[in-house]
Amino acid sequence: MRKLLLIFIVMFAGYASTLHLAISAAPSRVNPLLATDSASAEIASWVFNGLFKYDKDGKIVGDLAKSWRFLDDTTLQVTLKDNVYWHDGQKFSAQDVLFTYQLATSKKVFTPYANEFRYVKSVQAIDANHLVIHYKKPYFKALQVWMMGILPKHVLENEKDIMTSSFNQHPIGTGPYKLEGFEVSKDIVLYANERYFEHKPNIDTIIYHFLPDPATQFLMLRSKKLDVGGISPLQYERQIDDNFRSFYNVFEQPSHSYTYLGFNLKLKKFQDKRVREAINIAIDRQEMIDILFFSHARICTGPFMPGTFAFNEKIKPPKPNLIKAKKLLKEAGYTKKHPLRFEIATNSNNSIRMYAAQIIQYQLAKIGVKVKIKAMEWQAFLNTVVTPRKFEAILLGWALGLTPDAYSIWHSKEAKLGGFNLVGYNNKKVDKLIEEAESTIDMQKLSNIYQKIFALIVNDIPYVFLYIPNSITVVNKSIRHVTPSIIGIMHNEIDWIKP
Hints:
By secondary structure, this protein is an alpha+beta fold. The protein has 3 domains: about 10-25 and about 165-255 and about 470-495, 3-Layer(aba) Sandwich (D-Maltodextrin-Binding Protein, domain 2), CATH 3.40.190; about 40-165, Dipeptide-binding Protein, domain 1 (Alpha-Beta Complex); about 255-470, Dipeptide-binding Protein, domain 3 (Roll), CATH 3.10.105.10. Helix content is about 30%, strand content about 20%. It has 16 helices and 18 strands. It has helices at about 1-15, 40-45, 95-105, 155, 215-220, 235-240, 240-245, 270, 275-280, 285-295, 320-330, 350-365, 380-385, 405-410, 430-440, 445-460; strands at about 20-25, 50-55, 60, 65-70, 75-80, 120-125, 130-135, 175-180, 190, 205-210, 230, 250-255, 255-265, 295-300, 340-345, 370-375, 395-400, 465-475. The strands form 4 sheets. Strands 11, 12, 13, 14, 15, 16, 17 and 18 form an 8-stranded mixed beta sheet that branches. It has a 4-stranded mixed beta sheet with strand order 1-10-9-8, covered by helices on one side. It has a 4-stranded antiparallel beta sheet with strand order 4-5-7-6, covered by helices on one side. The two termini are about 25 Å apart.
């Protein structure tokens, strides 16, 4: 009888459990239109859905969209799922999609994501479950545009200022988890959405522990207080033991990101290409990788990731040449008595990036360049350095999607406040190729155009492209249904079971 009772309890208790994760920076605004930092974007991904998403194989599938078809090259018809509800119980409809589009493209919102919709001519809500989207011309990212999270019209339509709305700290979405609110520099708690349209997540609660220090994150992993976490190559190679390996599975794959040293091209010193080239060939990327990553990274050769249609395999990394670098600096007017000086700004909560800055400082000293390093906490760095463009050189990284889009980072029109062209890059030929690519839906032609863009950007040296790190993730072995994929391991988290 007792055995039958235990079976009954297990069957009807479900899989109530808590997933413990870490976050190194506090989110600012958990709103898909305003989430420009990685912390905000990560939390928002649990709370909101787009019309489309990538599946584990990198294929575009419906998220809020049930089905879709192109009526012609510029007209997309979308049927929405009928079983979607907002976290407050209101039913999701096509009006929410129309509202999100209108808000994103209005003057009420200061967002770089507005440019995602630049080729959308109009959006029509035919009825509650049907949309027709008209494009100005054929667009190679016609579906990807709608992967951005959709916002609730009934909550925000009378909001006077979306930028400062309390909604950004207390969001209401359609996603698998709810967020009641969060405080800066505090743990973040997400609760399973019982009415999620796929199914209620098996794990009831996600807790993001606020751990800005990577060393503290690692200590939490070693003490088995986190279920999932990233570890560095040094930790993987030298600092984990059999006890650690017995508790965690290890998943390693190339990240969809790269780190770069970007020059503020509005400064006179960096407008001289000889200066940029001297720095480019004075930095020994392989030495940096050997020190920082052991064998768990590769040299980045340009702005688009290997394995994508945009990657140009003909472009090789520059070979370090200190003699030529010194000659270029001398030609540009820099000597021992009048050395090139500049400051590298970066964020202090990324230890790898901090070490990279120190290596660059050391390597450039060999050609007489005097480098200072300014490191700041992420939000302060974002608000006082990145957004207002108050830097000489910046050490940062980009995370890129499976469909690269050069416009937001490399088109000259994006060299504005709120845009992602942080360094002020301006090449009219690149602009023209980007614009040509946007209306090219033939993949081979698109690939040829993007590879030309790749080569032109590398030749201009707006960035010193540094490295592509591997992503090394550890996951509690007791969690079932964890499967790696091209988009990472969290793609099917709602199916995970943690005993």
